[in-house]
Design goal:
The structure holds two protein chains of two kinds. Chain A is an alpha+beta fold. Chain A has 15 helices and 32 strands. By secondary structure, chain B is of the alpha+beta class. Chain B has two domains: 193 residues, no CATH class; 105 residues. The chains are: A alpha+beta, B alpha+beta.
């Protein structure tokens, strides 16, 4: 299965796209044959309609992306490029993300990417196509995150539609994407999301005999623990009441800790090969789920789109697991969910605010710099957020505390949230390099800045039990006690010092901790209360905002995945729902949790970042 | 040795002329009852002239210090309210705090003038052993809470009799003796310790380091490793000794010994090979750290790679480290070393799918 998909992808890329209409050639940037050093960013495709290419050069222009396009006819074409000025929320004027479109080695139109406050079709002049094939290049001019969704060559005078829905139809038509997605396969369980929770869920179910599809929208597994985000694992594994839980995490987890460290720390290859070693898992990397088909209150199918080729596949199964973090599948299926903070009256939580609000924990754009033997320049970067002697952070790296978007919608404002993370890293660095610490930072070079933001919180899908603060502080153990949460109740707020300097534009956070005893989370937090065949594992399980503070660390979410895999195997075997596993097969689940699903006799290197607990109750 | 005695005698005579206070009485038990050769160092301590300028050293038959000791006669004061404390403080031959001895007739007392109980001495010992104590960065005026209405320079007595110890400190100091704890901690980690370090630093020659690194005391070995780090000219002579300590049962020492090997040292193939040689005998976390060091160097020696693969085949390194070992294997290794090629080939057919896949991926990517 895996090899087949590699071949299909290669074939599609070689032909570069689908049949085009006679007067219009629609070219998805993410489908370029050679992407140079541009990166594929799929994080916001549900919002703006598509993955895109981005010149993430951290201030150094990136190598050209290049592709060859077949034209249905020669002649003069109007050219439109879908892009925008990503700094526009903070800066009125030309943005930093400039790039050029080059057609057959000739620049087309003006510089692009520096205007517009939302995704738009920017005119790029006219080109004369004299042959059936043309070479198209994207030439980055700044290294500051210029972005291109698509390029449209048309003999018509009007650009493609701007409205996301209408544009979606236009894309499908001009890319020749079939109205009905191809079959991705029938499985016993479809796991959507290949972070630590989803990876563990897939491995667990597969080892218990289920045929599993694991759908992940990036080329690597591990999510926040991958080399793309670089957050280390947190929490404890192998603790009572089910010490075998965590054996999968022991196998896939990196052997050393640290946030915002070099990529090799996160051992992406270990996670990938552990999954590929499971014969029962079919792994679909680079596919993002975007739609579901329901049968009554059950999900019948999930549709996913390839983030480079736009190919669409449909996956069917009696059981699904939403490990997307954002609760995307649950949301599409109409599952009940919560977002933001509950008011104190709702659950009586001492830590909850008096009134409910939309505040969430934020997302981190982590970064680090290295010392070179010679001076390293960095361009002046000042796009609306002023950094000076008083407010510049005199640091050489930024980890979890660089956190943005607490007062914004972590789903619908996510591109802006990530972009603000980039903006403050670049602005602060520019201030250090060009102004307030020129000498001291002369030889330092910005080595890595994440463009995949590490998100902590968004939708929480609601299950038959909603875990709350007092369950843990009063140690209320439910009969379906399962994976343990061991981290403190660790909630983040805007850093008051940062607020002083950047009111309503904070980018630094503080953590407020409340210690707990290791507490076994009820299994009923791991399935939807109103979508009958939907499991959840990860930060989108059924908890209050306060309870999320402890369960959200990745060794804990991984163990949730192990439990979900076990429960799915029981549900599959008994042809029952996740709820019926609790109602009729709880003893079977307990037996599996006692036994665990570890396969290899690996050393336990998971003794870093275990967090501070009150010890066993 | 003889010259040191001469020097010492001279110094003692000199000290008798400079120091007009009474010579401290030496206990006949404990540290002072140990056998060895006694030396006296004279140093100037501007912060504590009452305690005298003498720093004693007792050496064993090999010339290694058993201890350094100083008589402390000091006032514990807050603006005029003072009491004197008298005791001996001792440091080991690496400058670490070793212990204290209080004259039988002059036990330490607290703010209410009661004597220290055995539990209080035990607590004090713990405090003085803690190199990172919270007392480190505190000034005397930070130790107690004084109500705003009270003049802090008049209203309370020594050791916080009328004012309360800072709540954050009350757990970590001897009750009602916060000033004594503070004074003694800063006596242990103050000019005397600096002087001991200076004395020891001057001794860092080949002969002395050889004795220190091969002795049985972990603290002395640790000192020797730090000294060799400070003096790269001794690297060649001692790196083999440092390597041996990577297998120490003492985790801290093993880690320090491994940390000694900075990435640049691993450019030496012999060191890579020897690190792999000791790897099989080390604790799990050290094993992984050795692998990460080799990865960090970026160019693994062929023999080191072969030895690692053999260790893996012999199951002396677990499956969890296999991906790290493969990061070290290059096409060059496989082309130039038949044994490596053969092991890799066999692993690409291993019955364990994880191992097999990782190996095949390596071959595909070369």
């Amino acid at each position: 299965m895996k090899i087949v998909f590699v071949l299909i992808t290669a074939l599609v890329l070689a032909l570069n796209g689908y049949p085009q209409s006679k007067s219009t050639v629609f070219l998805e940037a993410e489908s370029f044959q050679n992407k140079g050093a541009w990166v594929v960013d799929q994080q916001f495709m549900d919002l703006m309609g598509s993955p895109y290419l981005m010149a993430h050069g951290m201030g150094v222009p990136v190598a050209d992306a290049e592709t060859t396009v077949e034209f249905p006819s020669t002649g003069e074409y109007n050219v439109f490029v879908r892009t925008f000025n990503w700094t526009s929320p903070w800066h009125k004027g030309e943005g930093p993300g400039k790039f050029q479109l080059i057609v057959n080695r000739q620049k087309a139109g003006t510089d692009l990417g520096a205007e517009g406050s939302e995704w738009l079709w920017q005119p790029a002049g006219k080109v004369n196509i004299t042959d059936s094939k043309a070479i198209i290049n994207l030439n980055d001019l700044t290294g500051f995150n210029g972005r291109v969704d698509a390029i449209c060559f048309t003999k018509e005078n009007t650009p493609p539609p701007s409205d996301v829905k209408a544009l979606g139809k236009f894309r499908k038509k001009h890319l020749g994407i079939p109205a009905k997605p191809e079959k991705g396969g029938n499985f016993d369980l479809v796991v959507i999301g290949g972070g630590v929770a989803g990876t563990a869920a897939a491995i667990s179910a597969a080892r218990l005999g289920m045929q599993v599809a694991l759908i992940q929208d990036r080329p690597v597994l591990g999510g926040n623990n991958s080399s793309e985000v670089r957050v280390h694992l947190g929490g404890r594994i192998n603790v009572e009441p089910f010490p075998a839980l965590g054996d999968v995490i022991k196998e896939i987890g990196p052997s050393r800790g640290g946030n915002a460290q070099p990529a090799e720390y996160y051992e992406d290859e270990k996670k990938m090969e552990m999954v590929l070693a499971e014969e029962n898992i079919s792994l679909f990397t680079n596919f993002r789920a975007f739609d579901v088909k329901m049968k009554g209150s059950r999900i019948a199918e999930v549709n996913a789109r390839h983030i480079e080729t736009s190919k669409e596949l449909v996956f069917s199964a009696p059981l699904f697991a939403d490990c997307t973090g954002d609760g995307t599948i649950g949301f599409l299926a109409g599952a009940d969910y919560a977002i933001g903070r509950e008011g104190r009256e709702e659950f009586g939580e001492p830590t909850a605010p008096e009134k409910a609000d939309k505040l969430t924990m934020g997302s981190s754009v982590q970064w680090y710099s290295v010392e070179e033997n010679q001076p390293a320049d960095f361009p002046v970067f000042n796009y609306g957020v002023d950094f000076n002697e008083q407010n510049t952070e005199k640091v050489t790296m930024g980890e979890w505390t660089w956190e943005t978007g607490m007062n914004y919608d972590q789903i619908n404002d996510f591109e802006r949230i990530r972009d603000y993370g980039l903006l403050v890293v670049y602005s602060n660095w520019s201030s250090l390099k060009n102004s307030v610490a020129k000498e001291e930072y002369s030889n330092r070079r910005l080595e890595w800045v994440a463009y995949i933001a590490g998100k902590r919180e968004s939708r929480r899908l609601l299950g038959d039990v909603i875990l709350k603060e007092q369950d843990m502080t009063d140690y209320v153990v439910y009969p379906d006690a399962s994976a343990p949460t061991t981290w403190t109740i660790d909630l983040h707020y805007p850093d008051p010092d940062n607020t002083k300097h950047f009111p309503e534009k904070e980018f630094k956070s503080i953590a407020v901790h409340k210690k707990i005893h290791p507490y076994p989370i009820p299994y009923r937090c791991f399935y939807s209360r109103n979508v009958d065949n939907l499991f959840m594992a990860g930060r989108n399980i059924s908890v209050t905002h306060v309870a999320l503070g402890t369960v959200r660390v990745m060794r804990t979410t991984g163990m949730m995945g192990e439990v979900v895999g076990m429960a799915a195997s029981i549900a599959g075997k008994n042809n029952s729902s996740p709820r019926e596993v609790y109602q009729h097969h709880l003893s079977e689940l307990k037996s599996l949790m006692e036994k665990g699903v570890g396969k290899y006799d690996v050393e336990n290197m998971q003794n870093y970042n275990e967090g501070s607990t009150l010890g066993p109750k | 040795m003889a010259s040191i005695h001469k020097y010492t005698v001279l110094i003692v005579v000199l000290s008798g002329m400079l120091y007009s206070g009474t010579q401290p009485e030496r206990p006949i038990t404990g540290f002072w009852a140990m056998e060895g050769t006694l030396l006296t160092h004279i140093f100037e301590d501007k912060t504590d002239s009452l305690s005298g300028p003498e720093l004693f050293e007792l050496r064993d038959e090999n010339g290694i210090p058993k201890w350094f000791g100083r008589h402390i006669f000091k006032d514990v004061c807050i603006s005029g309210e003072c009491k004197m404390i008298r005791l001996w403080l001792f440091w080991d031959g690496a400058g670490n705090y070793l212990g204290l001895q209080v004259p039988d007739a002059e036990p330490l007392t607290k703010s209410d003038h009661t004597e220290f109980e055995p539990a209080d001495y035990k607590k004090l010992e713990e405090i003085l052993r803690d190199t990172a104590s919270v007392l480190k960065n505190l000034k005397q005026e930070d130790l107690i809470v004084v109500p705003d209405s009270i003049n802090p320079y008049q209203a309370y007595e020594v050791d916080g009799y009328t004012a309360a110890t800072q709540p954050a400190l009350s757990e970590v100091v001897v009750k009602d003796a916060v000033y004594s704890c503070h004074t003694l901690w800063h006596s242990v980690y103050g000019p005397v310790q600096d002087t001991i370090h200076q004395i020891l630093d001057k001794r860092a020659n080949k002969e002395y380091l050889a004795k220190m690194i091969s002795c049985s005391k972990n603290e002395y070995i640790s000192w020797a490793i730090k000294s060799i780090e400070k003096h790269p000219e001794f690297h060649e002579a001692f790196y083999n000794d440092v390597l041996k300590h990577i297998t120490s049962d003492n985790q801290e020492l093993a880690k320090q010994a491994l940390d000694y090997f900075k990435p640049v040292f691993l450019d030496d193939s012999n060191i890579q090979i020897q690190l792999v040689d000791v790897l099989a005998e080390t604790d799990m976390s050290i094993k992984y750290e050795i692998l990460w060091k080799l990865i960090g160097n970026g160019k693994a020696n062929e023999q080191a790679v072969l030895n690692l693969l053999v260790l893996f085949n012999e199951q002396k390194i677990g499956v969890g480290a296999y991906n790290l070992i493969l990061r070290l294997v290059t096409l060059e290794h496989m082309q130039e070393n038949e044994q490596i090629a053969s092991i890799i080939h066999n692993l690409s057919e291993n019955e364990n799918r994880y191992i097999r896949n990782l190996t095949i991926r390596l071959l595909e990517n070369q």
